[in-house]
Design a protein that fits this description.
elongated; 3-stranded antiparallel sheet; PH-domain like; 19% strand; alpha+beta; 186 residues; 2 domains
């Protein structure tokens, strides 16, 4: 079977495909990330805001600021933490991964939402990474590299190490099947 589009007369044909006829990514559900990932992200925000609060209080002590300024800084830090806590929860609800027959998709974001879809035919290699915070929270991430890319094309964070390994193996296996099929057609 040839992968080159050929019409009934045997000549090459580049038929038009309408956008409306394409399958929608959102028709299939995205798998949710581990709940520990939400905890990890909130902990990171707490650490960042805590460090900023300590730095701000240090500056206030050095300059001899009045007590009301201290209270204002602490209240501002608490408000920022509450906002980041809620926003991280909303972003977590949107994040996910979807493995389909011919591609893998990852979505993320809250205000600026994005969905990255990588066809298996473009996958060069897939890695499993576990940074320091990932190890503390028992998480891992799958990083997908494609042909011609200098950096990673897709990153799926917030998976258990076992689930990340299964996803990595699934992508590799499906990429190999796609490559074999393409070589047989060529």
């Amino acid at each position: 079977m040839s992968s080159v589009p050929v019409d009934e007369s045997g000549s090459w044909n580049n038929r038009v495909v309408t956008v409306d006829s394409l399958p929608a990514i959102d028709q299939a559900p995205f798998e949710r990330l581990e709940p520990r990932y939400l905890t990890q992200q909130r902990a990171i925000w707490a650490i960042i805001l805590g460090l900023l609060l300590v730095g701000g209080i240090t500056v206030l002590v050095i300059v001899g600021a009045p007590t009301w300024v201290w209270a204002l800084v602490v209240v501002a830090a608490l408000v920022l933490f509450a906002i980041s806590f809620v926003l991280e929860g909303l972003a977590y609800d949107y994040r996910g991964v979807q493995l389909r027959a011919h591609d893998v998709s990852a979505r993320r974001g809250l205000i600026g939402r994005s969905t990255i879809t990588v066809p298996f035919s473009r996958v060069q290699h897939v890695t499993l990474e576990r940074g320091a915070f990932d190890r503390v929270f028992g998480l891992a991430q799958v990083v997908i590299f494609t042909a011609g890319a200098v950096a990673a094309d897709a990153r799926v964070k917030g998976l258990s190490p076992e689930r990340a390994e299964r996803l990595r193996e699934g992508i590799i296996n499906r990429s190999n099947v796609t490559a074999v099929a393409a070589n047989e057609d060529g």
